[in-house]
Amino acid sequence: MDPRRFATQTEMLGRIAAALERLAPPPPAAPDLAAADGFVWDPAPGGGSLLAVPRISRVAIGLLHGIERQKRILLDNTLRFAQGLPANNAMLWGARGMGKSSLVKAAHAAANAEHPHSLALIEIHREDIGTLPDLLRLLREQVRRCLIFCDDLSFEREDGDYKALKSVLDGGIEGRPENVLFYATSNRRHLMPRDMIENERSSAINPSEGTEEKVSLSDRFGLWIGFHNCDQDTFFAMIEGYAGAFGLGVALERLHAEAIEWSVTRGSRSGRVAWQFIQDLAGRLGMTLPGGD
Fold it and tell me: What is the domain extent for residue 153?
């Protein structure tokens, strides 16, 4: 080959390579996990980033009533993880409004109170679950331990996001980073609609195998914590706990009567309904409620 032609081609290839480098997005910067205790995952094209949350909206763990067993299990697991000990991914499933997401945030706060700045809480939205492997790659080399939290997780079908989460929980070829734990809440015990599981059972060549495949995702969580509708005594305990903590100063008989009326108009009793009643009562009394801490 003519040396001059070879040199020209080499120069041209170098220019092309330089142009491609300029067009390519820069690699994602390492996150500063010391900037806050809470973050939201933003899977922007070209890398994704963690958006710091200066103040996490939460309720103190002592104000969560009616879920004592659930509190103990999740807090023990979270404290072990904060200390660098083995811990399990956890799924909190069951009745709406019974404190599933509140407990995750409260357990995170309690662990950081006992072991300061040990854990970062990172929220990932349901629609971004498919980018979870990208988030894990970003966190893999970090020193700070991280709780990844997805609220109201469920799947309408076995889509790509379902398979991505399944792979992450299994660890895949890379393995789940030792500094990462995954917590999720769901109203569905197996993360999928019952009719989807039943359809699989009725149409599959081997019904048992088809059903097992559909419920296998939830089985990959080491902790499976159920939440159930509360009775009236538990509902009263929630109301009394909030009223006492915030110094509302309402007579017990009146408090119970108004709480019953509120729950009847809402058609349910739950921690969420109790909190909404307390907000209404405080407003009628002309009192302000402190923010979560």
Answer: 38-227
